[in-house]
Design brief:
There is one protein chain. It contains nine helices and ten strands. It is an alpha+beta fold and about 260 residues long. It is globular. The two termini are about 20 Å apart.
């Protein structure tokens, strides 16, 4: 069991080395390879060696290679949690690993650093507060905005747009409702990133993940835009609905509780 009051913070390289030492070699290798383009296996091994040295200096590993017991327990919980929730806000990621008994192991990753702590999702509305804080959702009442529809063709172009210039070019093709223009302005201000959260079913033995649900949304000054793309294949349309923070948080918590069986 993860020690209740002991928190851990590890770089991606350190985390990968600990995963490797705990027997999760393939997952560790995949995590390392995703961090950058490695010029050679020698360069990769050099980074692994540096990470091991840092672990020893920080007291997470002793001289004979044994890992701190609390950290080792954390890694096993992280890897063996079958059900997870992944939250993305810009370039920051938060993973909730189901521990059972209404507790989750929270993993936050920002700028290559991973921090961990456990939490009771249903106690004193900690789950709602965590979601609110992570996504930095506006607390004020939203300005009334009209929903709008985007064609599947335009949505396809929008989904690969990464710059303000590309968005402006997309809007220059025909006339669009004011609500769509307001959404696009908010999208550009966000760095051309949509927020999302997804439900994940993980198998640590096969190192495979299933993602049955992905929800997309974008906070803005006027409201939070929820993007419903369920009918993109059948009707060729994507729906953008304005909503408020409390409604979005309630929806996210409902899906989390359903997924984790709370």
């Amino acid at each position: 069991m993860v020690q209740e009051k002991k928190a851990f913070s590890l770089s991606t390289e350190e985390l990968s080395v600990v995963m490797m030492l705990c027997g999760y070699e393939q997952a560790a290798a995949d995590a390392l390879k995703n961090t950058r383009d490695w010029e050679s296996d020698e360069q990769l091994q050099e980074v692994v060696g540096e990470a091991e040295s840092l672990l020893r200096r920080r007291g997470y590993q002793n001289e004979i290679g044994e890992i701190d017991q609390g950290l080792e327990s954390l890694i096993h919980l992280l890897m063996r949690a079958e059900k997870k929730v992944r939250c993305v806000h810009g370039k920051t990621v938060m993973l909730l690993h189901n521990m059972g008994s209404r507790k989750v192991l929270v993993q936050k990753c920002e700028d290559g650093m991973h921090s961990f702590y456990d939490m009771d999702m249903t106690k004193n509305k900690q789950g709602e507060k965590t979601i609110q804080d992570f996504y930095q959702l506006p607390s004020e009442q939203p300005i009334e905005m009209e929903p709008f529809i985007m064609s599947s063709e335009m949505f396809q172009s929008f989904s690969v747009a990464k710059t303000a210039k590309q968005i402006n070019e997309l809007l220059s093709e025909g006339e669009h409702p004011p609500a769509m223009q307001a959404f696009m302005e908010a999208f550009v201000k966000s760095g051309c990133f949509l927020n999302n959260f997804s439900l994940i079913k993980s198998d640590y033995i096969t190192d495979e993940n299933e993602i049955p649900e992905i929800h997309l949304f974008l906070p803005s000054k006027s409201c939070i835009w929820y993007i419903d793309y369920k009918e993109v294949d059948t009707h060729g349309q994507v729906y953008f609905y304005p909503t408020e923070a409390s409604s979005l948080i309630q929806m996210i918590m409902t899906r989390i509780k359903m997924w984790f069986g709370f």
